[in-house]
Amino acid sequence: MSTKQKPLELTIIGAGMIVNDLLLPSALHLKRLGVIGEITVCDMRESALKALKESEELNAAFPDQEFKTVPAIGQGDSADPELYKKVLAEKDPFGAVIIALPDQLHYRVLKGVIPYNQHILCVKPLVLEYDQALEIEAEALERGIFIGVEYHKRFDRRSLLARKHYRAGDLGDFALGESKLIEPYFYRHSNFQNWFTCENTDPFV
């Protein structure tokens, strides 16, 4: 006799470009399939949360799906960098959390989320120092939680579109191929350029 797994409650920490383009659409699709239940997106910036709520693409693709924001739209920005802890304090253990923040914040927020016994998916890189990775691994094993690294480029819509055109024969017969993903235009409208600097991350990653 098979038993249906209860849908996972999902908390997304961060509301930037990657959440808009890839993570939230994936989560809303999984909600539609019944894999994920309630979705909460937490960010200190009301403008980022409002942009997600008012996204024409998301609303057109998922007219039947909802997600909560913390703070709620209309409450303004939050000054609390640990706002996500208040959200997780109200969640049952062994739900799911996606951490989608600038690289230099990953370790601190991972350490903040782990005590709530949630399964965690953190955008790459997990942390910036090897010893921190070992520490996070040990805590995950001790608590029986999953902590994984999300690498969204494998599901990037531009990569998928290129594959679609190749499979459809739109690009002719390949004798030799080289693929590049160049997207400087998109970063003009993100916060990426403000934190992706040598003191905050390892650009080699």
Précis, in short:
This protein is α/β, with parallel strands linked by helices. The protein has helices at 17-33, 46-53, 56-61, 83-88, 106-113, 130-143, 157-167, 184-187, 192-195; strands at residues 8-13, 36-42, 68-70, 96-99, 119-123, 147-150.
Walk me through this protein's architecture:
The structure is a single chain. The chain has 205 residues and is α/β, with parallel strands linked by helices. The protein has 2 domains: 147 residues, NAD(P)-binding Rossmann-like Domain (Rossmann fold), CATH 3.40.50; 39 residues, no CATH class. Helices cover 38% and strands 14% of the residues. Strand 1, helix 1 and strand 2 form a beta-alpha-beta unit. The longest helix is centred in the first third of the chain and has 17 residues.
Count of runs of 4 or more consecutive helical residues: 9
CATH architecture of the largest domain: 3-Layer(aba) Sandwich
Helix content: 25-40%
Tally of extended strands? 6
Described by the principal axes of the CA atoms, the overall outline is globular
Strand content: 5-15%
Which sequence of SSEs, written as H and E, runs from N to C? EHEHHEHEHEHEHHH
Radius of gyration: 18 Å
Strand order of the largest sheet: 3-2-1-4-5-6
Based on secondary structure, the structural category is alpha/beta
- The CATH class designation of the largest domain is Alpha Beta
Q: Which characteristics define this entry?
A:
38% helix, 205 residues, 14% strand, alpha/beta
